[in-house]
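I hope you will forgive my troubling you with a question about protein structure. You will find the record immediately after this paragraph.
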Amino acid sequence: MTNLKAYAPAPAPSSTAGLAGDLDGGLASLRGDCARMTPHWAAPERSVSRPVPLSLLHGVTVPATSARLLEAMPEYGN
């Protein structure tokens, strides 16, 4: 089956920062976009995560090369 739907091409970037279609607006433009979207996002209720019992952790394997790599890193192995 062939999908025959056609879509319009993406709008060309404008020369004015902050307008729709501006792909290189910079950080200020991105922050403005995020601020405008904030009312549309709902924060989930805060939940307390509990540790998983070790009995439920099974079937996880780590290649020896990865284990040695992490072991050699001071933040993880030493």
